[in-house]
Amino acid sequence: MEWYLAVLKKYAVFTDRARRKEYWMFVLFNFIISFVLGVVEGFMGAQSGVRQSVLGSLYSLAVFIPSIAVGVRRMHDINKSGWFLLIPIYNLILAATEGDSGENRFGPDPKQEQQGRVI
Questions:
Q1: Could you read off the pLDDT of 31-52 as tens digits, one per residue?
Q2: Per-residue exposure over 38-77, b if at least 16 CB sit within 10 Å of its own CB, e if not
Q3: Which domain holds residue 30?
Q4: Nearest by Cα to 14 from 91, 72, 74
Q5: Domains: count for the chain
Q6: Which residues contact 34 (CB under 8 A, 6 or more apart)?
Q7: DSSP label at 83?
Q8: How many other C-beta atoms are found inside a 10 Å radius of the C-beta of residue 18?
Q9: 36 to each of 42, 50, 61, 83, how far by Cα in Å?
């Protein structure tokens, strides 16, 4: 949950770099929260007969910008432009690739920064 909240704290930060763990933990928690909201809406919709997905839509809208921002930072970690997010399969391969060791043109290595401080 710490990684999910860290991404939300950097709501619209498109500079810097994001580790693989930060990106994939955000994706995991995003999936879990979306699933739970879908189940809750399913129960509410079944009882009231309403087919609109209000909770899911609001949640998707709320995490839209952070999702793009963490994706761009993830691409920066492997020394690629954020525009690589627009290439469908290749962006998943890049998101699973280990980031550059040391500093690159997008900033210092986030893995080294975390090893230097106590978590």
A1: 999 999 988 888 877 556 566 6
A2: eeebeeeeeeeeeeebeeeeebeeebeebbebbbbbbbbb
A3: 2-116
A4: 72
A5: 1
A6: 56, 59, 60
A7: G
A8: 26
A9: 10, 18, 16, 31
Structure-token pair, residue 113: 């920064």
Report the C-alpha gap between 115 and 4 in whole angstroms.
Answer: 19
pLDDT in tens, 64-101: 999 999 999 999 999 999 999 999 999 999 999 999 88
Nearest to 42 by CA among 29, 32, 30, 52: 52
Distance CA 14, CA 69 (A): 5
pTM flag (> 0.70):
yes
